[in-house]
Design brief:
By secondary structure, this protein is α+β, with helices and mostly antiparallel strands. It has two domains: 137 residues, Beta-Lactamase; 97 residues, Homeodomain-like (Arc Repressor Mutant, subunit A), CATH 1.10.10. Helices cover 44% and strands 16% of the residues. The protein contains eleven helices and five strands. It has a five-stranded antiparallel sheet, sandwiched between helices. A hairpin with a 5-residue loop joins strand 3 and strand 4. Helix 5 crosses helix 7 and helix 8 crosses helix 9. The longest helix is centred in the last third of the chain and has 18 residues. It is globular. The two termini are 24 Å apart.
Length: 254
């Protein structure tokens, strides 16, 4: 089975996002939240995320979440939740306390996926604890929504593999412009949009270098499959991210 076939077998990635106020009342949810749970924003706004809990929800997990958030600590865990139709599902999630410039608590932010559909979340970057989310209030939900949809687009369709990818077209797909998209990426990652795209490309290149199915290609041949058009650019970007050249990376693997 080749890499392309593996990708098509993966379920469509849906990442629910919940933004609450400092007391834990829901202020905003994205469309993927509705797709996963069946609840829309009007139905949950002002309520607690516990609306998703039911008879088989693990009390020890609920307690661990309460303890972490009361101590203003992020947490990554799994919990049994319930959709609007009372269907039970495994929810994999990370929750962050958010602070303003004075380090005062402003909100809580949660990213969640349906664990029954996606067993392994290790390759989903936004599902890993990342301190950058605790450094911003993220009060601009429009910016947050764009950033989540950008990540989802990259995870689902791997548009970064297209060496002809135009930033303008990418921005239009997300319903914005290149200037605002760049601002959003810079705010959430601390890097520019090109760097963000190259990070995905380098990760993909490393996977393919390790994959025996691509042994017939040179490292630059693999780079071309990952969205790079210029050999020198690939070598430069690879070394920036990995600290070694692609040849040294291969040599270290051996």
């Amino acid at each position: 089975m080749n890499a392309a076939t593996k990708h098509t077998l993966n379920p469509k990635l849906e990442i629910a996002v919940i933004l609450t106020d400092r007391k834990g009342s829901i202020k905003w949810v994205n469309e993927d939240f509705t797709k996963i749970t069946g609840y829309d924003l009007k139905e949950v706004k002002g309520k607690k995320p516990s609306i998703l809990q039911g008879k088989n929800t693990e009390p020890e997990v609920v307690e661990s979440i309460k303890n972490a958030l009361s101590n203003l600590q992020p947490i990554k865990t799994e919990i049994t939740n319930y959709r609007k139709n009372d269907e039970e599902y495994l929810c994999k999630l990370v929750i962050y306390p958010l602070f303003d410039e004075n380090q005062e608590l402003t909100n809580f932010l949660a990213f969640e996926i349906d664990g029954d559909k996606i067993k392994n979340d290790k390759e989903i970057g936004i599902l890993q604890l990342n301190p950058r989310y605790s450094k911003s209030s993220l009060s601009n939900t429009k910016a947050l929504d764009i950033f989540i949809r950008l990540n989802t687009l990259f995870e689902n369709e791997k548009v970064y593999l297209n060496s002809e990818l135009k930033l303008k077209e990418l921005a239009e797909r997300l319903g914005t412009n290149t200037r605002y998209l760049s601002q959003v990426v810079n705010k959430e990652t601390g890097c520019n949009l090109i760097h963000f795209i190259n990070e995905f490309r380098i990760k993909e290149a490393k996977k393919k270098i390790i994959d025996p199915g691509y042994r017939h290609l040179t490292t630059f041949g693999i780079a071309q499959h990952c969205g790079f058009r210029n050999k020198s650019t690939f070598y430069k970007v690879f070394k920036e991210f990995e600290g070694v050249t692609p040849k040294d990376f291969v040599r270290n693997l051996k």
